[in-house]
């Protein structure tokens, strides 16, 4: 039978006759077109996944400490008294959740409870990770965003005070009750903020006896037996 010819009875099968009316070349062309479309769809899917994850790659892969804040942010710190100020923290919550400014809604990515709702968003509940951020670095990231991620710069939408308020609230998810001590370069309980570490073995200071936490008893003076 010649290529493209119909077998006996094929004319009576719906759709089969029209199929055989195509030449081999035409059928080959359609097959190649279908393959190209499948390849294109596959590339689009891969590209979409790459686009969604590339913006968050830095957040997912970074395990070491973040880079230090640039000079223009290195000396910026949380205003005095704000770490423990409930009013400031409450205002920060409104900023974080987009109540104060509908153009700024941190919770749309980071979640209202600190659990990210979008891939790649920083998880503020991970205290050990967040301890690697000084208040200056944290503030810098809020202000300028994070390159190659979906974290935008918010300095054009939020005043400096509002950025500090947002941070004061964000830190409650994983570092509640802690504050960044600039002198110690570490997170400490708010009550200990600014307190100097006790000097060890200061001159003239009585050392406590081992185990009891008390200063050693004074040694009795020797009796002078002269004149007795």
Task: Indicate the CATH class of the largest domain.
Answer: Mainly Alpha
CATH homologous superfamily classification of the largest domain: Cytochrome c-like domain
State the distance separating the first and last CA atoms.
146 Å
CATH architecture name of the largest domain:
Orthogonal Bundle
Q: Going across the biggest sheet, name each strand in turn.
A: 1-2
Quaternary state of this entry equals single chain
Q: How many DSSP-defined strands?
A: 2
H/E element sequence: HHHHHHHHHEE
Secondary-structure content class: mainly alpha
Reported for the largest beta sheet, the result is: 2 strands, antiparallel
Enumerate the spans where pLDDT stays under 50 for 5 or more consecutive residues: 48-61, 204-219
The number of domains? 2
Shape: elongated
User: Number of helical segments?
Assistant: 9
């Amino acid at each position: 039978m010649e290529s493209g010819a119909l077998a006996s009875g094929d004319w009576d099968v719906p759709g089969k006759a029209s199929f055989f009316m195509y030449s081999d070349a035409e059928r080959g062309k359609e097959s190649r077109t279908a393959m190209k479309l499948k390849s294109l769809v596959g590339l689009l899917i891969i590209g979409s996944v790459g686009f969604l994850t590339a913006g968050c790659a830095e957040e997912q892969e970074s395990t070491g400490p973040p880079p230090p804040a640039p000079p223009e942010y290195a000396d910026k710190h949380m205003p005095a008294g704000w770490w423990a100020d409930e009013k400031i923290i409450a205002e920060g919550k409104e900023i974080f959740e987009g109540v104060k400014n509908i153009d700024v809604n941190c919770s749309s990515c980071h979640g209202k409870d600190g659990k990210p709702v979008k891939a790649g968003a920083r998880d503020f509940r991970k205290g050990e990770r967040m301890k690697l951020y000084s208040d200056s670095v944290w503030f810098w990231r809020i202000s300028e965003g994070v390159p190659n991620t979906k974290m935008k710069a918010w300095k054009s939408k939020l005043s400096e005070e509002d950025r500090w308020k947002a941070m004061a609230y964000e830190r409650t998810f994983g570092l509640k009750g802690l504050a960044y001590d600039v002198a110690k370069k570490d997170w400490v309980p708010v009550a200990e903020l600014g307190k100097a570490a006790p000097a060890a073995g200061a001159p003239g200071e009585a050392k406590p006896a081992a185990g009891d936490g008390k200063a050693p008893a004074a040694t009795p003076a020797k009796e002078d037996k002269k004149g007795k």
